[in-house]
Amino acid sequence: MSESKGLFGGGMTIPALPVRWLYRLASTHAFSERGLYLNMGYWEGARTIDEACEAMVELVGRTAGITSADTVVDVGFGFAEQDIFWTQRFAPRRIIGINITPEQVRVARERVRKLGLEDRIDLREGSATATGLPDACCDVVTALECAFHFDTREDFFAEAARLLRPGGRLVLADSIPTGPDLDPWQHPLQALMGGLARAALAVPQANAYPRAVYAVKLAAAGFESVQVDSIREQVFPGWHRALAQDHEMRRRLGPVGWALGRIPEAGYAPFDYVLAVGRKPGTEAVK
Ligand SMILES: C[S@@+](CC[C@H](N)C(=O)[O-])C[C@H]1O[C@@H](n2cnc3c(N)ncnc32)[C@H](O)[C@@H]1O
């Protein structure tokens, strides 16, 4: 425990499961049937989990304004499905992927090699908060459904600001709470359940803050034109419906699918899902 506020102090502080363990356990059980996507999907106009996963990736790529002149650093890339999609759709000059789970990096590298894209997509094992990449090395940083795991998300904001050239863009699709933590003295059972869920899903408590705080932290890291928009209505209802109705999807996910399928729609009420954007001040030099 990092703080000594007692078991209930400042929300329920229960140490998070190491994130590598979580994804080692998940192995190659992916959400999508086609490819190995691990995002909950953007469901506006999508009928299947595959369409929704791709729509989420498209949304992040379009919001980042990826062009053929851009070098992209994509952290938490899962099996690099999104990097393959962006390369085929937007043809960026290069994508450098950073992922903390070695097993995923191995599988992803093999997928990229089979597609002959190794010279366009460079996948590395490492942490989003300490990438080891040089200052001002890229035009776009993306974090698709992963920053809630980082230790901490705020450290990642600082790392992204360091990596970006002036005028560069940071885009995240991220899940956060809708409000501040419940007072554990007034709601001990819910606070305990919330703390346990967070720990099991490898989410440090330091990342549990709502939209307004998220925007303040992005600005404090040096970003301008910050926007943190809720897209929860385009994510959670469709995801919940798919889990309830798509037996194949539940089967693909194994025991995790069984457990997720038991969450009632009201179980998503404390959670927001945001599309967050920030721009590093300055004018981009001619590349
Ligand atoms: C929910 S998955 C999302 C994967 C992918 N973005 C997708 O949407 O298919 C979260 C990913 O974040 C990665 N991750 C978690 N913590 C990380 C960290 N500190 N640095 C880099 N990657 C991390 C995990 O290994 C996993 O690939």
Main attributes?
alpha/beta; disordered N terminus; 9 helices; Rossmann fold; 7 strands; 287 residues; binds S-adenosylmethionine
Description:
This protein is of the alpha/beta class and 287 residues long. The protein has a single domain (20-179, 209-279), classed as Vaccinia Virus protein VP39 (Rossmann fold, 3-Layer(aba) Sandwich). It has helices spanning 19-26, 49-64, 81-90, 102-114, 153-163, 188-200, 211-220, 236-245, 247-261; strands at 71-75, 94-99, 121-125, 138-144, 164-177, 224-230, 271-279. The protein is globular. The model is unreliable at 1-10 (pLDDT under 50). Helix 5 (153-163) links the parallel strand 4 and strand 5. The protein has a seven-stranded mixed β-sheet, with helices on both faces. The N and C termini lie far apart (46 Å). Helix 2 (49-64) packs across helix 3 and helix 8 packs across helix 9. It contains nine helices and seven strands. 37% of the residues lie in helices and 18% in strands.
Number of domains: 1
Please state roughly what percent of the residues sit in beta strands, choosing from under 5%, 5-15%, 15-25%, 25-35%, 35-45% or over 45%. 15-25%
The second-level CATH architecture is 3-Layer(aba) Sandwich
Question: What is the name of the CATH topology?
Answer: Rossmann fold
> What is the average of the pLDDT values?
89
Low-confidence stretches: 1-10
Structural shape: globular
Number of H/I helices: 9
Structural class: alpha/beta
CATH superfamily: Vaccinia Virus protein VP39
In angstroms, what is the radius of gyration?
A: 18 Å
Major β-sheet profile:
7 strands, mixed
Bound molecules: S-adenosylmethionine
User: What level of helicity do the residues show?
Assistant: 25-40%
CATH class: Alpha Beta
Assembly state: single chain
Measured distance between first and last alpha carbons: 46 Å
Give the number of DSSP strands: 7
What is the H-and-E element order? HHEHEHEEHEHHEHHE
